[in-house]
Amino acid sequence: MRLPLIAAFLTSACLLAAPGFAGGLGEMTDAERQAFRDEVRSYLVANPEVLVEAMNELQARQEKAAAANDQQLLVTYKDDIYSDSHSWVGGNPNGDVTVVEFMDYRCGYCRKAYSEVEELVKNDGNIRLIFKEYPILGEDSVTSSRFAIAVLQLHGNDAYKQAHDALITLRGKPDAETLGRLATGLGFDAKPILDKMASAEVSEVIAKNQDLGVKMQISGTPTFVVQGEMLRGYVPLDQMQQIVADERKKG
Fold first, then answer.
1. What is the pTM of this model?
2. Cα 35 to the center of its chain, rounded Å
3. CB count, 10 Å around CB of 97?
4. Looking at per-residue confidence, does 35 or 121 come out higher?
């Protein structure tokens, strides 16, 4: 918020609280209004820290409101987040902390987070990991997700993880030729996978994930849900480890 807007807010607040001015600026003479405004301006100029305090308080209130909203969203859509029938589940399926990642294969920060999420899950040993295919960055994102989902539906969890790892590190364009080579490299016949990518079953998964993302107000990737906390954006490994530890303490 810009300082003039904050100053205007403080001026209004002071006016409403000031004895003798209960009727507001409209019931004051022009001279009285100007005198009051000059006094408020002089005070703010002499005490600029008030503006900083107001900005900090506003930010704190907004963050508190956003956190409360996220908590409600996690409660409302918990079954779709943690227990849908179409998302890949890895790590320790019986882990005591669940980490869910809404991800896009063409997202730079998802790629940055990839190795750190791998390390987090491997070193912890007790994390249940769920990937939500959430392609929001264009056609290449959608194509990549279609390939991964097709592999999952045709060949299962282990094959999906291999496809996921290959796609998140893929430097080239995910065209049919590239994906065909990728499928062959995974040890599968490419044609059934490429055909499956256009199926209604694959489209349904993407539609469900995108619908959930809209309901949860997810506009960027990666977005993580760590047990009972939503993390909107990339989180460094050390912070993620601390969040997991904190959630584990909560039970």
1. 0.77
2. 49
3. 21
4. 121
